[in-house]
Amino acid sequence: MPRPAARVLTLLELLQSGGTRTVAELAERLGVDGRTVRRYVDQLIDLDVPVESVRGRYGGYRLGAGYRLPPLMLSDDEALAVLLGLVAGRRAGLMTAGRTAGETASAKIRRVLPRHLAGRLDTLLESVAFTDRPGEFASPDAGVLLTLADAVRHGRPVSMRYTGGDGRRSERTVHPYGIVAHAGRWYVTGRDPLIGEDRTFRLDRITDARALPGSFEVPADGDPARRLLSGFATAAYRYDVVVRIHGTAGQIRARLPAAVARLEEYEPAEEEEFGEGGPGEGGSGADARWWRVLVRAERLDWLPPALAALDRPFVVERPDELRDLVAAFADRLASFARRA
Which of 49, 70, 112, 196 has the most CB within a 10 Å radius? Predict the structure, then answer.
């Protein structure tokens, strides 16, 4: 049976997880009655831990806002989750202020772990293989990230210095809608009030961000992730590709995600007939239909393998160069298949 001191530490850990905990919930988790829970709370208060009592129907106990507990108590599972999160974030390029903060945080956590647990975690991390390369992308400044996050939350304009892809520097003002982490980079989407248009900015190219007086209203369709992906799909590129594909939206999105392609519903004319390999083949399901898929790309060589991987009927509307590449790709596959 756990000793009272162990139960007091468990109570502290439960309160540390955040939110208000009812007396009944705490009593059940600790295996004691409500009177004992109140006695444990008094012991924490005697230790200068600011436990607050919340009145009302859904009342209970919670820790005072902003209080930092001196001991960091992590279970085996929690320590594993934190270390793997730090490693994955560093590999994915989602750390701020370079990779030093993540590395020092990992070192501090390992230093306070019991020897047997630290050894097991080290063994796991040494055994994990990653398919991406660490440090592939530049990291944003932590101050910039926090300033933008506060501006998003309170609807405040932000002034910043921005370096464009061509190396030109400029002073910009933006009404930030939200922050998006995508493919190893951080972005902020919002409206540029000077030109009256929506823009997307890379956080690693932003310096000296500061909030400005005033406020703005976020539009109802201001979803930052959707705007970011839509902006990628509609950006100016060398080729404007249009392909009609028969299948479900999910099948198409599996190979042509929203970041690279837009889908439009397409109703074929009655006189259009399916040739060999028409939509009845392939088990596409009752939800399958024709879609017009619009892709903007600098190169076309990746599209024939993507279309082949779909294994769905398709028609290339434009450009003619893609039709030739698809035919050449099919010939190569056929020649490989005939080899003994």
Answer: 49
Backbone angle region of 329, left / alpha / beta, with phi > 0 → left and psi within -120 to 50 → alpha: alpha
Give the C-alpha separation, 312 to 231, whole Å.
Answer: 27
* Spatial contact of 66 and 59, defined as CB atoms under 8 Å apart: no
Between CA 32 and CA 16 the distance in angstroms is 19
Q: What are 277-310's pLDDT values in tens digits?
A: 444 444 455 678 899 999 888 889 999 999 999 9
Residue 84 near residue 92, CB atoms below 8 Å = no
Please measure the distance between the N-terminal and C-terminal CA atoms of the chain and give it in whole angstroms. Answer: 71
For 277, residues 6+ apart whose C-beta sits below 8 A from its C-beta are 313
Buried b (16+ CB within 10 A) or exposed e, 116-129: eebeebeeeeeeee
What predicted TM-score, i.e. pTM, was given to this entire model?
0.48
Quote the CA–CA distance of 175 and 196 in Å, as a whole number.
10
| Rounded distance between C-alpha atoms, residue 33 and residue 15, angstroms | 17
Each residue's pLDDT tens digit, 149-189: 888 888 899 999 998 877 888 899 999 988 888 766 788 88
Q: How far is CA 181 from the centre of its chain?
A: 5
Asked if residue 246 lies in contact with residue 314, where contact means CB atoms within 8 angstroms, the answer is: yes
The string of DSSP codes covering 179-206 is EEEETTEEEEEEEETTTTEEEEEEGGGE
Give CA 229 to chain center in angstroms. 12
Task: Tell me the H-state helices in the chain.
Answer: 4-16, 23-30, 34-46, 76-91, 100-112, 115-127, 142-154, 224-234, 249-255, 303-310, 320-338
